[in-house]
Specification:
With 105 residues, the protein is of the alpha+beta class. The chain has one domain: Alpha-Beta Plaits. 32% of the residues lie in helices and 38% in strands. The protein has three helices and four strands; from the N terminus they run βαββαβα. It has a four-stranded antiparallel beta sheet with strand order 2-3-1-4. A hairpin with a 2-residue loop joins β2 and β3. The longest helix has 14 residues. It is elongated. The two termini are 17 Å apart.
Length: 105
């Protein structure tokens, strides 16, 4: 039985996201990281910001999510990186098994 899958959403700059993704996969914090461009709008330090960023969809397990976020915090340049953990409520069983095997300590 595969472990419970989660997806962690995080954003980073275009030059930083691939390095973060590679580190998380190489070190088995995540089984896979998808990266896609996004336009982000938010307030920071009282200013309205409009930034081009890369959205990272980090696939891991619930058990590994805390360690994955801790590692992400260590390697991320943002003062306050986005880290949202979303539960996966279903999926293709062979893929979920693979995800569980790859996101291991």
């Amino acid at each position: 039985m595969p472990a419970e899958a989660v997806v962690i959403f995080s954003t980073a700059g275009e030059g930083e996201a691939p390095s973060i993704a590679e580190t998380l996969v190489k070190e088995h914090f995540a089984s896979c990281v998808n990266i896609t461009p996004v336009r982000s709008f938010y307030h920071w330090n009282g200013e309205l910001c409009r930034d081009q960023e890369m959205l990272m969809m980090i696939k891991t397990t619930r058990e590994r999510s805390g360690a994955t976020m801790a590692r992400l915090r260590e390697i991320h340049s943002y003062e306050l990186p986005e880290m949202l953990v979303l539960s996966v409520t279903g999926g293709y069983p062979p893929y979920l098994e693979w995800l569980s095997e790859e996101a291991r300590p």
